[in-house]
Give the backbone structure.
Amino acid sequence: MQDKGYLEGLMVSPAPHIAGPMDSSLIMQDVLRAGIPAIIFALIRFGPKALAVLAVSIVSCVFLEAVTRNILGRRQTIGDMSAAVTGMIIAFCCPADIPLWMPAVASFCAIVIAKQLFGGLGQNFANPAVTGVLMMVASYPEVFTSGDTPLELWNNNQDVPGMLDLFIGNTSGCLGEVSAAALLLGCLYMVFRRTIDPITPLVYLASIAASAAFMGFNPLFHVLAGSSVLAAVFMVNDYATTPLTRKGRVIFAVICGMLTMLIRVYSSYPDGVLFAVLLTDLLTPHIDRLTGRRPLFAEGGSGDE
Amino acid sequence: MPENKLRGIVFPKSKKTSGMTIIPMEVPDMVYIPMKQAPGEVYLPIASPGDRVKLGQLIAEAGSPRCAPIHSSVSGEIVSIDTLAANRDADELYIKIRTDGRQDLHESVVPPRIRSSYEFFEVVRSSGLLNFGRDRTPLSTVLENAADAKVDTLIVNGTESEPFLSAGGMNMLSFPGFMKDGALAIMEHLGLNRGIFAVGSDKKPAMEALKKELAGENRLELYSVRDYYPNGFDTVLIKEVTGKLLPPGKKPADLGILILDCGSVIKLGQLLDTGLPLVSRSITVDGDAIARPMNVEVPIGTHVTDLIAFCGGEKAPIRKIIIGGPITGRTIENSNYSVGKDDSALLCFSELYAKDTAESSCIRCSRCAAVCPMDLMPMRIMDAVRRSDGRAFSKLSAFSCIGCSACSYACPARIRLSERIMKAVAYFKNAGKAEGSAYPSLSSNSARVASVGTADANGAPSARRKGKGGRNAG
């Protein structure tokens, strides 16, 4: 029989021998593509300054990821594009006039401290981009306040822009947060591609609206102003730092929306989104523990550990 | 009643060969009939080199109830009975037969006359038929076990939901009569009153043919099973068809159900008609490296290189060969392989599809849980495996895993979830037996995920078992 064996050294693999159409890199590419409308809008609205901020954040995130993985002696992971996504979200949270070293430092906090020191993609308990930007917001609050963003105007009891201006993005603010329309376009893309579960952004925004209404404020204004929509699209959907089950994600989104409004109204920071996301991220392991899925054949009750 | 939500994978237009009639293969110059067709089998060759054999002639007896007798798939002369390095076991015997191309039928091949159930079981036993699919047990053994158990319903599994595979569907389309005859014979001799043909909803033509065939036959019904993987696994199929739940560790017979593969039932129908034992298999030959993908009726023992040549040869250099479906099949490392009774497909892939995918870390996307037909949370089970935490493992109901690999397929980080969980199931079960408790909580240093497969061989639990035995002996 050997005489016939002209095919040698064939590849062997454990079952299954084929893999699904999605891999981690394609998922991250979807998220990057979902950011394109917001990027285009930022370029139109803020010009080349926006491009510089984007370039600095993305390049420094990818570079730092490569260097850190190298120093830690781990497999190179820049191919999974998650560092680029972090860079994009950091840029989205920065005003166009920000000194360019700041997004670079934010990237360091995000990639090195929040992500790689905890084991890299999927192992981090706090959203890297949010953590990185918050370091900058806490250290240099004046850079992140221009005095004329919708939420600052509202805080100072000044006239706020109309709802249509807020929706389209005809306001002042960070690169990625100004246009709800551009962000929602990207959101639709991710929902269509099944990258994200639409329930999370919907519940998050509904929770903001409900909390605002409960506090006696205009719900629509608080949904459209500040980073609410940015967080709904790019932060509360982060796989690594949000719960595993749909039930858990709904609970996460409700809490996060309420915290957003509480911080927005009662803290000295004009917007509460980033703090709210970070705080709720910390609750994720606990939400996960409480919202186990019931297996078809449950041997241990609800499947909780 | 559990929610009837579809959990699994739907493969879009994944069968190139669907609709291609099964073509009988030209008899090759030489066949190499494998003696060992499933693990743990014993065969006793009764022919010797130099003997002339005819098509359908018995050439090896079954040495255990785990195996079925083997018949010559060709007429010709036995060249050798030899062990050859191959992909099954190294000590495996092959009966090498040089064919004469005449395909003379052996005298024993006559339409059987069945006057009693005893004769029916005898005919099935001597036919060498297997229950195809994942089971691979001799059909006679399956039927005898079912006769002993309180079975009242026969489900014929015609789902074939893995990509590429289409020979089963084409068989049902071409031979609905044999399928009906085979099923009715089984029901008659086992005393069953209900038979269900569970056909994948993607196989519309086969369903139409069966519908026509079953008109006026009230003992048999046709059931359209939603087309998704893994709808052909016992637990999932029973849930889809009857709504009943098959608890882990139970057999379909415990629910009064007998599940047979559609290919086996059709072969049985043919056997009852012609008396021809199992000498060929309907095989889907496909993959991007095959010039002419098709469904072929292949003599058992056909060398894969002959089969590839029959299908137009290589279109691109073959780098990977899968025997069986792309999800549950197995790869072979060289082409020293001949078609056995349990093979359903030959898939040949070029460099393009033969890439090794490295595992990366879990990104917590929950896709594994979304496709799990048992509603498990594979990512959390993997956490328990990593910590060697048997208690968490069992609390997550990991012991109910059916090993369908849907999670591994869906995982974007390419983590081999199914493989690792199945290994851990075996490991924890062993450890549990040794410790006398069903679900052990192992200390973290007793096993790590990498050693799950080997730890049970020399780990503490088995040593303790030995110690007990020693005390008893003393």
